[in-house]
Specification:
CATH architecture of the largest domain: Sandwich
Helix content: 25-40%
Mean pLDDT: 82
Shape: globular
Oligomer: single chain
Order of helices and strands: HHEEEEEEEEEEEEEHEHEHEHE
CATH topology of the largest domain: Jelly Rolls
CATH class of the largest domain: Mainly Beta
Largest sheet: 13 strands, antiparallel
Number of domains: 3
């Protein structure tokens, strides 16, 4: 059939005029050339597509390998992070003692007020405090012990008036929290002042006869001011801000605040930093603080310690032969020396290095909480840690130091109140 069709096509072409035949031949030639070019291009396209497919497949394979490698690396990193998280204790990392190298705070020797809220039930308002608002005792998953938590624009204050001498120290731990300003930082305020009314709260923006106001704003910046009323010292009122991002407090982090009052001079420390130093904050005869008050914002507070001014360490150790110190700190049931112990350790090391022939026994003591054997072991480990820091951080010759621990033995006060228990938790240095 195909042969017949071809014969007919040829016959028809031959029967046409010569010019027409030439045109047909020309058209056929062009069609043949186009067809050839089309087939050549098609083959070329197929070759190019095949080559591109190979390259694309290679790229995709490389990307797949890279993604897999990244996933493996991320998995390994996550595993390392998880292992690191397992190895580290809960909460913030323990700051190094050396980071407190400029910390010159030395706490008072005799405790006259101590509050860790251990005598209060969780959910209750603390027994030794008063308020025109609300507060409750809570515990946390990061920081041990009981904490007084408040979120309000009102106040909580020490119910009984404090009998403060001319020289004393105040310390407390505080955790800023959210709530008053939404989920973010709410800030907090503390006032140390002379009350007008021993039986009730002193209202107003500046209560009582006068005092010191230390505040942390909702964005974390600390500030301070003093105020005096009804005396010839009114013109000595002071105020200011503590500038610097390194001093801004953050939500849900614990800070150790220390206040050192020496007659008219007031110094305030936040962690390892001295952030306020006012030589004429409380001019003699103008104001005598007797109440501590927390107000406005949101915070959790614990471990409030007020003690009579720093002891004469040199005289106690070198003349009397025994120095009892409460300025070396440990976390509950821990034997690691806390960084805020730096000021006390530095003073003791200075004395020891100036008299290189004297040998000293370091003895640790605990309160009666917990098992006797555990307390005995803890006290020995704490004494060894104190020796280690004196040697490592302050260059004291370790051959001169021996250590021991007596646990809850030889208490200096009954173990019946938080304040008395704080007196029994101590470190003694005994001249040999």
């Amino acid at each position: 059939m195909k042969s017949i069709l071809k014969f007919l096509v040829v016959a028809i072409i031959l029967s046409l005029p010569i010019s027409t035949q030439a045109q047909i031949k020309l058209d056929l030639k062009k069609k043949i050339e186009n067809k050839v070019n089309q087939r050549v291009n098609q083959k070329a396209d197929q070759a190019v597509d095949k080559g591109l497919d190979a390259v694309e497949g290679s790229v995709k394979e490389d990307e797949k390998k890279t993604d897999q490698a990244n996933e493996d690396q991320e998995s390994a990193g996550a595993a390392e992070d998880n292992q690191a998280a397992t190895d580290k204790p809960a909460g913030q990392e323990q700051p190094q003692l050396q980071s407190y190298s400029k910390y010159d705070f030395v706490p008072g020797e005799k405790v006259i007020f101590y509050e860790d809220f251990s005598q209060d039930a969780v959910g209750d308002f603390p027994a030794l405090w008063n308020t025109n608002g609300s507060a409750e005792i809570v515990t946390t998953n990061l920081y041990p012990g009981n904490w007084m938590k408040y979120v309000m624009r009102e106040c909580v204050w020490t119910d009984a008036l404090l009998k403060l001498p001319d020289n004393y120290t105040i310390e407390f731990d505080i955790i800023p929290i959210g709530g008053l300003e939404g989920e973010g930082m709410s800030g907090w305020n503390m006032r140390l002042f002379q009350a007008k009314n021993a039986k009730s709260w002193d209202g107003g923006s500046a209560p009582g006869q006068g005092g010191l106001w230390f505040a942390v704003a909702y964005y974390g910046r600390p500030s301070y001011s003093t105020w005096l009323y009804g005396t010839e010292c009114d013109e000595l009122k002071l105020s200011g801000y503590v500038e610097g991002d390194q001093y801004k407090e953050k939500i849900n982090q614990k800070y150790h605040i220390a206040i050192w009052v020496q007659k008219s001079r007031v110094r305030v420390y936040q962690e390892q930093n001295k952030i306020v130093d006012l030589p004429k904050a409380f001019p003699t005869g103008c104001v005598k603080p007797d109440r501590l008050r927390f107000e406005e914002g949101g915070a959790m507070i614990s471990n409030i310690r007020i003690a009579v001014g720093a002891p004469d360490m040199r005289n106690k150790l070198m003349t009397e032969g025994k120095l009892i110190t409460y300025g070396i700190y440990f976390d509950v049931n821990k034997d690691v020396v806390k960084p805020e112990s730096y000021g006390t350790l530095k003073e003791i090391a200075t004395i020891l290095n100036e008299v290189p022939d004297v040998k000293v026994k370091i003895v640790g003591f605990t309160d009666s909480d917990g098992a006797d054997a555990a307390n005995l072991d803890l006290s020995k480990r704490r004494a060894a840690s104190v020796k280690n820091e004196l040697v490592k951080s302050f260059g004291v010759n370790g051959d001169r130091l021996v250590t021991d621990g007596l646990g809850e033995g030889q208490p200096v006060a009954p173990n019946d109140t938080p304040a008395n228990k704080a007196l029994n938790r101590r470190v003694e240095f005994i001249k040999l």
